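thought: fold this chain, then report.
action: predict
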Amino acid sequence: MTTLLTLDEIFAMAVRIESNGVVFYRAAAAKANKADADYLMKLAAMEDEHKRIFGDMRKRLASRKAAEPPRPDGGLYMAAIADGCRFEGSAAAAGQLTGKESMADVLRLAIHLEKESVLFYLGIRDVVPAADDKAKVDQIIEQEKSHIATLAGQLKKRANG
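observation:
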């Protein structure tokens, strides 16, 4: 079986996606009122924590990475995928924020983007051949699901006033 993505590349993408999530939430916070900005900054901190977790997972795989052939593009391909797709706080989504969105609008967009991330990672899991590697991708998926639950809870809380 041909390896389409190395596990190192998957974790590099996860770190990049989480970094984009930080940008998204900070951009939304910059355009929000004080209370909403505080909440959005907490979400940015959650993304920072996920970025750290995925970075640590990637570091633990460093010995495996040495056995993988390097990509001739130096990882630019993976960065383009992570930056170009519309999931979890993509740079494109952050750039579309006008400041006129309600907090509910931002939360709904964030939920949608997180769902897209989960679907993306489910697809990646399908191309990862080793069971222990699939389990690591599952850890990423569970982290993203926890974001969806947090965001949905906040949206519901706001709807119930």
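thought: worth noting. The two ends are 53 Å apart (CA to CA).
final: tokens above.
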